[in-house]
Amino acid sequence: MTTALIAEDEPLLAQALRAELAHAWPDLQLLEPAVDGDDAVERALSGRPDVVFLDIRMPGRTGLEAAEAIVEEWPGDAGALPLIVFVTAYDQYALQAFERAAVDYLQKPVQPARLAACCARLRDTLALRTAANGAAKPAAADDAALLGRLRTLLAAPAEAAPTALAILQASIGPTLHMIPVDEVIYFEAADKYVRVVTREREALIRMSLRELLPRLQPEKFWQIHRGTVVRADAIATATRDDSGKVFLTLRERPERLVTSRLYAHLFRGM
Amino acid sequence: MSLSPDSRKAPATEWRSAHAPLSRRHLLVHGLEVMLANTAISGLLSSINGHPFGPTLVYGQCIGLSIWAIIEAGRRVLPVRASGWPAGWRGILLLVLACPVGYAIGLTIADMIYGHSNWHAYLSKPRRILLDFGPAAVFFAVVAGWFYARGQAREHRAQIAAATHAATLARLDMLQSQLEPHMLFNTLANLRALIAVDPLRAQEMLDHLIAFLRATLAASRQSEHPLSEEFARLDDYLALMRVRMGERLCTRVTLPPELGALPVPPLLLQPLVENAIKHGLEPQRGPGELHVEASLDGSTLVLRVADTGRGLDAAARALAREPALPSSGFGLAQIRERLRTLHGDAARFTLEPRHGGGTLAEIRLPAAARPHS
Hints:
CATH topology of the largest domain in chain A: Rossmann fold
Order of helices and strands of chain B: HHHHHHHHEHEEHEEHHEE
Oligomer: heterodimer
Number of strands of chain B: 7
Largest interface: A-B, 29 and 30 residues
Shape of chain A: elongated
Largest sheet of chain A: 5 strands, parallel
Strand order of the largest sheet of chain B: 2-4-5-7-6
Radius of gyration of chain B: 34 Å
CATH superfamily of the largest domain in chain A: Response regulator
């Protein structure tokens, strides 16, 4: 049985999409709808639907941010990622981009013919997936690529390649510390800030990890988790435990860092 | 003139790129015009003082073209305006200087062609200078002056066109900010959904949408309407938003009846209410409240829009993260501009964090009674 989750903050629209889907795809089983972006992430991770209809503009996390979180936090044993369909009232520029990062997109008000075509596309994709199942496990690398496309979409407005950071200015109390980026062992997201960890100290910078990432050299700094970016040459070992999780030890710090499923493929041995 | 240096420059550069007054084609056309004028002047002069037409024409062309060459050179050296002429006294000075200097140069050139010197005659009989130069100077000045006036008129037209263009753009911006497509399509989607489940409520919603659209389109044509009308239009908008947001939006609108007749600029409060919802309440998880209130403080009308949304800081952060979202900047700038135009310094607009969370917008303006009520 195919299951789907609708995430839409406007109650009438959620109800209408539900009714239209019942018509266009009678066998589709709908989960309890999500009323905002954060709710969508929770319900998707717990209900593990095959398809998610995500409104773009929602309270809390936007549809794009919710999609990113779902892809990132999708448990490794939960099977393939859900197929994502974005739903939007009006977006002048992003429509084609939505199509690249999702299976399809719908424009509000949703037209029955358009919805039927979308459902056909979803069914085809799911059928292909079932046929291929057993032959190959859903590749984490593909999921990581999807995540990359979502991130590009999320970062798009920033445009113009920002210059790479060389020095971080972090205040600890009243003192401003100048920290060369190359001395950073890892970065960790902390709400709206980023925790910067070097050999001898920790500091906070007023910047989100999302803003910081494009300003780091990707070959030097690896993202290993939604909230963690580590300097590659600071990693000492990578160990896979029984559940398939990869843990990292560091050369100059005692902590162990955990790698999320999507990034585990970075550590394969040569 | 109150134009800033920048706005003065703008039409000039625009004009130049469109017509390129110093281009080769321009020089050719202008040169032919000058030669035509020289021919006419020579004809006139030869009929006045009885000199043969042929030599007069040669002298006329040499002198006229020399004057023109000086003016053309001046226009390349000095900074020119959209008229193609240097600004103010420089333009006039160029005209006044170019005539005698060009006359002298042209005369010398023509003398060289004919191999005799008029200078000799002029120096021995200064009165001849006046006789020859006087009428010629008048004619050349008239022609040069005509070119000058034509350039000025052209600049004027370009300025008017630029001003009209700017005004049209401003109106378009305003209309687009009011008829925000995201709001419109979401409302239509709700309407479509409602038609199926509750036709009566759908009709009611459609009536609100019609009133809202009508008011939006009319707002750019009126300068004032009664406060009661303003609140009625807010009711329309809020009714639409309540259908869309369901239980997440709770609204309270307070208008003391005695203030209903006070005049206000149409849809003055609209952007504030829209911002409170779009940037404060809509992106916030869970329910929120919006309170619109009019009150009188002495002879000052106080209009307040308060929301319990996520506040100014969060909205600014979200905007910085996602600049694609429609900004509230245009709406707020527009409110300030409208208040300044109508009341100068007597009106005030503030936007600040509300005690207990959310945002408080306040407009204070003189409570002038309607003249005919």
